[in-house]
Amino acid sequence: MSRAWILFWIVLFCEGLISSHGTQSQTGKNKRTSTVLRKRWWFGCSGSKPGGHAWNNNWDGRLFFQCNQAQSISSIYSIFRGCRRDRLFEFKCEYNFAAGYYSHDCHWTDYVNNFDQDISFRCPNGKFLAGRYLRSVVTMCE
């Protein structure tokens, strides 16, 4: 390879690392990423879901989950993939004596968090979680 081609590729690579185009992060702030890094990110971001879990949603898909009658959510497992800017959820339900007795009075809450913010939600006494919709609404039973 001639010196001119080597110099061309070095300049192209360095220009790619230096030039930046604004992309928006999850927090809404602009972050600066190079074209080279963005291309690497794009090629390395798989749309497949990791195995070994019964995911309740797809990447960029709507999340709707509700336990069967007489059950409540017993565990929540979640992973976040930054390149997809999304999260997968796996919910598990178990029989709950209280759920079997009280699950006749269930309702969806209003939003329990703001967009792109953590959820900090505690069930009131005597209530339990039985479902989840999107990222911000839960089914609460009493």
UniProtKB/TrEMBL annotation:
InterPro entries given in the database record: Dermatopontin
GO cellular component terms, A-Z: extracellular matrix; extracellular space
One GO term (biological process): collagen fibril organization
Major location (coarse): secreted
Keyword check for tRNA processing: no
Subcellular location(s) per record: Secreted
Residues making up the signal peptide according to the UniProt record: 1-22
Ranges in coiled-coil conformation: none
The entry's keywords: Disulfide bond, Secreted, Signal
Sequence intervals crossing the membrane: none
Highest rank taxon of the organism: Eukaryota
Alphabetical list of Pfam families matching this protein: DERM (PF14704)
PANTHER family assigned: DERMATOPONTIN-LIKE ISOFORM X1, DERMATOPONTIN-RELATED
Sequence similarity: Belongs to the dermatopontin family.
Stated name of the protein: S-protein homolog
Organism listed in the record: Desmophyllum pertusum
